[in-house]
Amino acid sequence: MTRNTGMHTSIATVSLSGTLTEKLAAAARAGFGGVEIFENDLLACPLAPEEIRARCADLGLSIDLYQPMRDIEGVPDDVFVRNLRRARHKFELMNRLGADTVLVCSSVSPDAVDDDVRAAGQLARLAGLAEEFGIRVAYEALAWGRHVNTYGHAWRIVEAADHPALGVCLDSFHILSRGSEPEDLEGIADIPGEKIFFLQLADAPLLAMDVLQWSRHYRCFPGQGGFDVAGLLRRVLAAGYRGPLSLEVFNDVFRQADAGPTAVDAHRSLLLLREAAGAAELPSPVVPTGVAFAELLTPDAEPVTALLTALGFTRTARHRGKPVDLWQRGAARVLVNTAATARRDGTRLAAIGLESPDPAAAARRAEALLAPVLPRRRAPGDAPLDAVAAPDGTELFLCATGDTEPPDWRADFADLADTPAPCATRIDHLALTQPWHHFDEATLFHRSVLGLTAQESVDLADPYGLMRSRAVANAEGSVRIALGVGAAPTDDTVHAAHIALATDDVVAAARAFRAAGGRLLPVPANYHDDLAARYEFPDGELETYRELGILYDRDAGGAFRHCYTETVGRVFFELVQRDPGYQGYGAVNAPVRLAAQHAGRR
Ligand code: MG
Ligand code: MG
């Protein structure tokens, strides 16, 4: 296990939702070694500092930083005397708490004057007082500091102050939000490692906005944004820093999200950051090579099997020990599981089987990255399958590839019928919906744990909110997963998952489905009128699309034709005809699809 070895990991309590005690419990459970205690969290906590200290000790957490102390330095003498009095009070509190490092942010006060000599002298006096309490002062340049807003400037002042209890705190947001050209970061090498008292890590999406608002609301975990946080970490480690790697992430979404999963996501991002910076070895990713199966869990098999039958699937095998049937059409395999657990949630896409060249190694990486490893499915005679839970709860089974006949998971099934005649049908992609709090982390999970590549995120209008979508895929396109998130958390339409079946003729497939009694999702005439304006089609083609509800998209690589079945529970199917070069998923058509699905429910 990489967990709890190597560098000490820490998280600022402000990064998590809940009360202080909830935050501490979540951080400890996720495997962090320590926390930064944010003053507001302490002020709102009914526990005395000594009790918080004991709680942290019980949880195995060190208190690595107390923060923030603001507007201390570069002020007139009389103001500084009052500031020292305030500091003494905080240092006494920190002694009770057992915290030995305090964060001092560069002043934003209108009282502050632009005078480095004064700032250095006052910080040295502050450090002298701190030293009496056994405390160190870590001075951080806020990107919006009044006179000190770069790490280089903060370091020049700390160097001039020349006090053993005074060092700098480097914060990746404050540094990288001001520019991350190599020359902007070269100065880090000039700071002796032992004078870097603390390192705070956060990423952020690249946004053009006021830097204070950007910092307070849009920070995210490393790997989720656009900053080269790993490059910064590499430089800080090269300078000789050996202190905690601490996440300080102010984010409006995380503030509302359940602290437990957020803390795990946070810790995973730190593990990945260390890997990216070359500071930790994790088991290498094993990229899945294909989709072995999709598993539907349902309390009522009839509507599901009617849908599969209309889609041309045949029930080919039955599990030897469980109420699970294998349905197959070409290379598309769907398991229908009618276990009693299905009664709670209705019909849903519960699991995905991924073919892997080395399932055990894939599971080791997943485990090292804190993915919950699920108990292996074992009935007497069952092949043990490695499985992990994705952040949305979908079970991911790591299956040996079918090169060895038959693949291990298939051996658990007894044949019911001859394998149907080969046809071009296979699973083109799977679309999963994510809890909206964890969308970015879901992408990071699939990228980092499974080694899939993420495409650009797309924002889509749903009639009742905004929907985001981002796809992850392997290089061959034989595994494609579209991750979507809806704004309406309780809406079944937005939260349905789908299985897209690749065919070489979507018109023929749609007609056959309808002839077999299947119902296709109707698409408004306005959509096809608009298609006629955007593209030229051969005679009669658009009329066929109109009749069958076929949607159309095109990119530089080719065309994509697709249509949808009705929804059963929280699952529907899509029939797709993908030109080999087309890279997308018809996302541009998703608003029309969502509107039609909403209409169908009413
Ligand atoms: Mg900071
Ligand atoms: Mg789709």
Architecture blueprint of SSEs:
Layout: E1 9-12, H1 20-29, E2 34-38, H2 39-43, H3 49-59, E3 62-69, H4 77-97, E4 101-105, H5 116-132, E5 136-140, H6 151-161, E6 166-171, H7 172-176, H8 182-185, E7 196-201, H9 211-218, H10 229-238, E8 245-247, H11 259-276, E9 290-297, H12 301-310, E10 314-319, E11 324-329, E12 332-337, E13 348-356, H13 359-368, E14 386-389, E15 395-400, E16 413-415, E17 426-434, H14 439-450, E18 453-454, E19 458-462, E20 465-473, E21 480-486, E22 497-502, H15 506-515, H16 525-534, H17 541-548, E23 551-555, E24 558-564, E25 571-578, H18 590-601
Helix pairs in contact: 1-3, 1-11, 3-4, 4-5, 5-6, 11-14
The structure holds magnesium ion (MG) (2 copies).
Main attributes?
602 residues, alpha/beta, TIM Barrel, 2,3-Dihydroxybiphenyl 1,2-Dioxygenase, domain 1, 2 domains, nine-stranded mixed β-sheet, eight-stranded parallel beta barrel, 25 strands, elongated, disordered N terminus, binds magnesium ion
Structure description:
By secondary structure, the protein is of the alpha/beta class. The protein folds into two domains: 9-276, Alpha-Beta Barrel (TIM Barrel), CATH 3.20.20; 290-601, 2,3-Dihydroxybiphenyl 1,2-Dioxygenase, domain 1 (Roll). Helices cover 32% and strands 25% of the residues. The two termini are 51 Å apart. The structure holds magnesium ion (2 copies). The site of one magnesium ion (MG) has 7 residues, from strand 17 and strand 22.
